[in-house]
Amino acid sequence: MEFIDNLPAMDLMRSEKMTFVQLIIPVESSHRAISYLGEFGLLQFRDLNADKSPFQRTFVNQVKRCAEMSRKLRFFKDQIHKAGLLSSGRPASQPDVELEELEIQLAEREHELIEMNANSEKLRQTYNELLEFKMVLQKAGGFLGSSKRHAVGEERELDENVYSNDDYADTAYLLEQEIRPGQSNQSGLRFVSGIICKSKILRFERMLFRATRGNLLFNQAPADEKIMDPVSTEMVEKTVFVVFFSGEQAKTKILKICEAFGANCYPVPEDITKQRQTTQEVMSHLSDLESTLDAGIRHRNQALSSIGFHLAKWMSMVRREKAVYDTLNMLNFDVTKKCLVGEGWCPIFAKTQIQEALQRATFDSNSQVGIIFHVMDAMGSPPTYFRTNCFTNAFQEIVDAYGVARYQEANPAVYTVITFPFLFAVMFGDWGHGICLLLGALVLIARESKLGSQKLGSFMEMLFGGRYVLLLMSLFSIYCGLIYNEFFSVPYHIFGGSAYKCRDGTCSDARSVGLVKFRDPYPFGVDPSWRGSRTELPFLNSLKMKMSILLGVAQMNLGIILSYFDAHFFGNSLDIRHQFVPQMIFLNSLFGYLSLLIVIKWCTGSQADLYHVMIYMFLSPFEDLGENQLFWGQSVLQVILLLSAIVAVPWMLFPKPFILKKLHSERFQGRSYGILGTSEMDLDEEPNSARQHHEEFNFSEIFVHQMIHSIEFVLGAVSNTASYLRLWALSLAHSELSTVFYEKVLLLAWGYDNIIIRLVGLAVFAFATAFILLMMETLSAFLHALRLHWVEFQNKFYHGDGYKFRPFSFASLTDDDD
After folding, report:
1. What is the enclosing helix (H) or strand (E) of 238?
2. 351-358 — which CB contacts under 8 Å span 24+ positions?
3. 84 — alpha (psi -120 to 50), left (phi > 0) or beta?
4. Beta-carbon neighbour count of residue 445 at 10 Å?
5. In whole angstroms, what is the distance from residue 268 CA to residue 275 CA?
């Protein structure tokens, strides 16, 4: 026990020791003090105004101002993005501006930019109208010109035939009345010209036809140029149309339909001379507007460039100011209204630095009163804080995804750093596939600084965050692949020749007895001669299944041992005597004994049936083992272990609730004794706290809880051991899939003397390796390793009901906080 107490503390094994502190800050130095604490980033404030809404807090107006400035900055950023400009990532040094000055400056620039946008939109709308007018003049002029040429020919024919007969003078048709010179009147043929979106032209024509009952002539032609929509800034295809009709009523209907469909109508003179004159005027106006628009865009881009030059700094400044005022809203005024009172948690090692930062804030703000910083007793449990680096952070996140460790509880991440990638590799063992994963991990690590400063997608961000997990998984996969002797499912004689040789020419079809051992065993890993033999699958199945049980029992024992260190650390001797000891006895009496038999069988080469041994250990414990006996005294040992396992179950169940009841009765009677903390009593309270309070003891609840815990452990010892067989199953599946793709795809294609078939086979093999073996199988093995750690390993000791230490820190602010 003394040896354990004298062991040096591990940084990651226990969370940092925390202390509850109170700050009394004069109002004049409060802003600067909070800013300095935000830069330091190791003090988590407690919200003293949790019962108030955000609008009832002291600094709500300052928060609103910062939110309004954030909105303006987002507007600037959006405008810069739409203009296709890039904001400067490293602005030139400029003197720091106060928040009030920045607020005025942002308001002026926003007003200026909105005015420029409005003017630009009006000019663009006018330019679009003139451009549409020009295209309507060109296309409609063509329609009218062809109509007049056709009309002249018809007029000559009518003069020769119809109008020579006076009987037909009063029966001229509508078109004839229109096209005869000087014969146009109020009931003559008219036309409306305009332009409409190409996507609406069919519905538009159909509606016109129905509204006029077919009494119209509709001509259309696609516009030569696309027109920019001033609102969406998208280029839109349009179509020019000319509608010939008769009557005032038809004109009213057509104009209403044009308005409903968003078609723009433009007057086109019938006279060709006037058409040319109007076209020239429109072209002149278009030229002037183009130069005006270009000048306006240049001026707007200059204004946006000057904003973009300082945008990153301004956004960071406003984000920090808003965070400072949000934190100040968590503080309370004292009775004099001259000081702000705050409470929070900080690591003990950071107390000196925090006090120095507060002293610097007092000096820089020229305050006459210093900031008071003192330690207090806390009612609640402290937050959990582990100091991690870029390597250990990903493993800590894997553990935290299950649950944040209780304060000062043993941290599974210390062991997960090794056990997680190793168990993954047991299922993924192939040193060819491991090299592929290693190359991917090395690429991510080599580009760490570049990728870390970029905004990545969700999948890429997850992959980049786990780059060191991927590195270890690949290294262990190479190691396990060398043990399995598999390189894309192909065995190699890396560590020397095989220990076996063929007895005759048919030994590849025989069982393992067809191979003759003629030298020492293969020095490392599986002998390559097992590959292709008829006993390959039974041999590898037996090997991997037994290895899975050994690894599982070892990891579960580690979890129970960690529960001992937790109980010893918190001084819970009751948990050691009545939880740790019976759990160790029960697990190792059954599955520890099975692991021992596996090792002895491997070492002695015995043919004993371990299934028979374990089954009849329960059914007939006194029966003679016969040929299944592995060592002298095995039958007696089995009876002792079976009795120990049976005794361990009531040992876990009964003593602890009754001892707790006895201790509570002694306390109720006022007897003096030392308080014995347990994992079932006062879970949410800090040990040695001056403000502890105890609820009424409920014996039935404690007993039921202990009974559930005991049953869960007894059944879990069986199910968890069986669950580790997934190591064998996944390893077998990965190996067999690799073999299928190699033999049935690559070798089959290579058997043809055709370069195209070989290339197709190689492509299919590469695709299957990349997407099935390297992606799907990697994900599958990752999830199964995650399950083994969360359920089979961590449930032996890990409570995971704590909460993270979330200090006020400028470094943790992101763009989403705007």
Report:
1. strand 238-246
2. 351/19, 351/21, 351/375, 353/40, 353/42, 354/21, 354/37, 354/40, 354/42, 354/43, 357/33, 357/36, 357/37, 357/39, 357/40, 358/23, 358/25, 358/33, 358/36, 358/37
3. left
4. 15
5. 7
pLDDT band at residue 276, thresholds of 50, 70 and 90?
Answer: confident
Cα gap 818→312, rounded to integer Å: 12
**% pLDDT > 90, the chain:** 48
C-alpha 693/C-alpha 120 separation (Å) is 70
Phi and psi based region of residue 338 (left: phi greater than 0; alpha: psi -120 to 50; beta: remaining)? alpha
**Confidence (pLDDT) at 454:** 81
Q: How many CB atoms lie within 10 A of CB 812?
A: 12
Place of tokens 């019962």: 51
Q: Delimit the domains of the chain by residue range.
A: 18-108+298-375, 125-147+188-293, 391-504+511-668+700-796
- Contact between 193 and 140 (Cβ < 8 Å): yes
User: Would you tell me how many other CB atoms lie within 10 Å of the CB of residue 442?
Assistant: 14
Tell me the per-residue pLDDT of 3-13, one tens digit each, with 9 for 90 and over: 555 555 557 88
Q: First CA to last CA across the chain, in angstroms?
A: 54
For β-strands 235-236 and 227-228, DSSP reports them as antiparallel
Please tell me the distance from the alpha carbon of residue 734 to that of residue 724, in angstroms, as a whole number: 16
pLDDT at 179 over 80: no
Cβ 157 vs Cβ 206: under 8 Å: no
Specify the residue for token string 């000055």: 101
| 12 SS3 class | coil
Band (682; pLDDT cuts 50, 70, 90) = very low
Q: Which of 10, 784, 778 is nearest to 420 (CA)?
A: 784
Round to whole Å and give the CA distance between 805 and 20: 12
The CA-CA-CA angle for residues 643, 646, 651, to 5°, reads 120
- Dig out the tokens for 414 from the structure: 């210390």
Distance CA 250, CA 635 (A): 111
Question: Cα separation of 815 and 522, whole Å?
Answer: 58
| Sign of torsion over alpha carbons 104, 106, 109, 114 | negative
Give SS3 for 373: strand
Tokens standing for residue 371? 């900031």
Question: What are 180-212's pLDDT values in tens digits?
Answer: 333 334 446 788 999 999 889 999 999 999 988
For domain 125-147+188-293, give the CATH number: 3.30.70.120
